[in-house]
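ok so i was messing around last nite and threw this chain in just to see what happens. nothing serious, just curious
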Amino acid sequence: MRWFLALFFISMLFITGCQTIPKDALSLSPESLAQRQMQTRKYETKDEAKILTACAGLLQDFGFNLDESETELGVITSSKMRSAVNAGQQVAMVFTAILGGVYMPTDKEQKMRASVITRPIGEHGEYIAVRVTFQRVVWNTENQVTVSESLNDPKIYQEFFDKLSKSIFLEAQEI
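result:
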């Protein structure tokens, strides 16, 4: 009986361990490639430190506080707290309380996060690729997370890169 149980468990290990990885498990979808293109620009320079300095200054101009900055790795993370009070939710909460006598929590605050990653690209590292991502996390009046999402509005990224290009140009001209 013991041999049978041992043989059974060993065969189960081999059967479950022989599953294959799907062919497209590591391939990116067209949506994720488009999103990455929206979040990334390349600049013709080898001075990654100046790019990071310009990114840090720009994030601070947008009201972000720098959380971490590692220039050797080309990483900046930043965040800012903002109100998430929504007038529509407040009205719905009042009507629910009046008509149903039930308290409905509403969104209270949100944390906006921005992360910048730079890396040299090109045959001889003659370009610096800059990728920025924006996310937000929203908490309600009971301190529960109600929304956690990446921001995918092209206008946000376009504004960031337009201002970054101007900042890099001004720094290059020492203005």
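not much to say yet. The radius of gyration is 24 Å.
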